[in-house]
Amino acid sequence: MRCLITLLVAPLLLTAGCAPARTGTLGPAPAGPSPTPGATPTGTAPGTPAAVASSGARTPAAGTTGPTTGRTPGPDGTITVELWFTRDGRLVPARRTRPATLATSRLALTELAAGPSGAEAATGMATLLPPGTQVSHIAGGVATLVPPAGFDTGGAATARLRRAQVVWTLTQFPAVRRVAFTVDGAAPTGRDDYADLLPPIVVTAPAVGDRVTSPVTVTGTAEVFEATVSVRVLDAAGREIGTGFTLAACGSGCRGAYRMNVGYRRATTGPGTIEVYEVSPQDGSRVDVVAVPVVMAASG
């Protein structure tokens, strides 16, 4: 009998031991994803991990309004928030640096409703959030939103994308993990509930209009073939002046963080573009291209 049990259990143990592990991350915000573990990617300079400052909950000062989210201002008295706009029916990140405030959720939603800058709009970014959308309170990791009238207009897909903008923007803060919309009393939702609205490649840095130097650090998350993320640096005329590739922390079928440094050479400071893309396994063409216009410093 003991031998029979052993024969029955052994195949189950072998099956469990051989099951492929699938891991990945949607990526933190707004500090950017963690460096990709492993060897230095071919064609890139070694990266230097960015320092991420820890922050805890803060008590509102007298005279402040709105719920606090635990974000600590920088030494220059400013705070940088990440905004999730839309482009082609997907979510795309941008950043704003503003004077520090304890009511960071109010700041983030106000900036989100104000919409993209002219340079961001030129890349196709837009916002679906109406003005006046604010958080009533934050408790137990849940930010409760009281949307204005007509918040869910425009059809189911548009309404869901609008909610995704709010959720991804608010959950960048340490105190917020999910968002409750009181307009319908549904259960609070988090980033995972809208992960399908991310494009194959998300670029968290550089942002549109950033001034960059060589080597330029490129970060984000991706779900691409064999986890391979490629980058081109283009000058104002579209000439390729730098290139490289790296591996995201997770590949096909899951999303992983990536980080790489790409050097370039140019004689003068001026506009340029960072292109992040996937190489098609079918024909080798560039697909899922994300183009980020920047200002490039001259390099030696």
TrEMBL record:
Signal sequence annotation: 1-21
Domain annotation GerMN: ranges: 105-192
Disordered as annotated region, ranges: 27-76
UniProt keyword list: Signal
Keyword Signal: yes
Nucleus as UniProt keyword: no
Classification via PROSITE patterns: PROKAR_LIPOPROTEIN
Name of the featured protein: Sporulation and spore germination
Organism (species): Micromonospora eburnea
